[in-house]
Specification:
mainly alpha; Arc Repressor Mutant, subunit A; 7 helices; rod-shaped
Length: 170
């Protein structure tokens, strides 16, 4: 086994050169060579000296590179953490998710007639006339339900119930 490992050791500089030429990245090349050497040692029992060990190692390295390239195409390229501009140990801000969850809970507490009107107009972006027709009510009734629903939501989410609406009449 030590002759096998000695032979592998003599191939390392050539493997590194080839890996750097394939990847054009020193760190990725070193990882590729390391993966190749680990696999070669793990699979040493499978090596049948039909040819030189060097050819076997280069074939293994090339296959690992091709498999990695295929995997990268499926998953997309890796983004180095250095370029992201944030500390990975710091959790991302969650206020948007909390606000949405709070709003969803508030909508669930609305009376059914107000919730139905609000969801048709706001969520489905339906014109008032269409929403009123679906609910089987006059447009004026729809608008008053929307007004009450919006005021209730502003109160439940800590907003001013008298604040002006942001939505325009359809």
């Amino acid at each position: 086994m030590s002759t096998f490992l000695d032979e592998i050791e003599t191939c390392v500089p050539a493997l590194r050169r080839y890996a750097r030429a394939l990847t054009r990245d020193a760190d990725r090349a070193d990882d590729l060579v390391q993966d190749c050497l680990e696999r070669a040692i793990r699979k040493s029992a499978l090596f049948r000296p039909r040819g030189p060990l060097r050819a076997w190692l280069f074939t293994m390295l090339l296959n690992l590179h091709r498999n990695g390239a295929r995997s990268e195409r499926r998953q997309g390229p890796l983004t180095p953490l250095d370029g992201l501009g944030f500390e990975p140990s710091v959790p991302p801000a969650q206020p948007g998710h909390i606000a949405l969850a709070e709003l969803a809970r508030a909508i669930d507490t609305l009376p059914a007639d107000q919730r139905e009107a609000l969801l048709l107009v706001v969520l489905e972006d339906m014109p008032y006339a269409d929403a009123a027709a679906i609910l089987g009510i006059p447009v004026g009734t729809l608008m008053s339900r929307l007004g009450r629903a919006r005021a209730a939501l502003r109160t439940m989410t800590g907003g001013d119930p008298q604040a002006p609406r942001l939505r325009t009449v359809k």
